């Protein structure tokens, strides 16, 4: 069964890059351009994993992550942070992997494979 990845990032070029990379690797993808849109897609699409930018307009990555973890139905969905923003926010657990921009595609794919088990 094909795994579905929700890509949340406000940069259309990054979203397109991640979509192409992940689809070429055999994943289905769903996209959102901010945390609010991501929460809508979360409930309608039931992704197996989420790539999450931290610095976005409207509802940013930290608020999205906090909301995700509070909901029993979504708290166990693996998250990989893909962001150019500084240190890990305190709200994000140390067990959540961080891939910094510019994106190292090999590191990202290895991280996704590990997170999906």
Automatic annotation (TrEMBL):
Q: Which residues form the Response regulatory domain?
A: 4-116
**One Pfam family this chain carries?**
Response_reg
Q: Which GO terms describe its biological process?
A: phosphorelay signal transduction system
Among InterPro entries, the record links this protein to: Bact_response_regulator, CheY-like_superfamily, Sig_transdc_resp-reg_receiver
Top-rank taxon of the source lineage equals Bacteria
Q: Which SUPFAM superfamilies match?
A: CheY-like
Keywords recorded for this protein, A-Z: Phosphoprotein, Two-component regulatory system
Indicate yes or no for the key word Membrane: no
What residues bear 4-aspartylphosphate in this entry? Answer: 53
Which Gene3D superfamilies does the record cross-reference, listed alphabetically? 3.40.50.2300
Q: From the Swiss-Prot or TrEMBL record, give the protein name.
A: Response regulator receiver protein
What is the organism field in this record? Pseudodesulfovibrio piezophilus (strain DSM 21447 / JCM 15486 / C1TLV30)
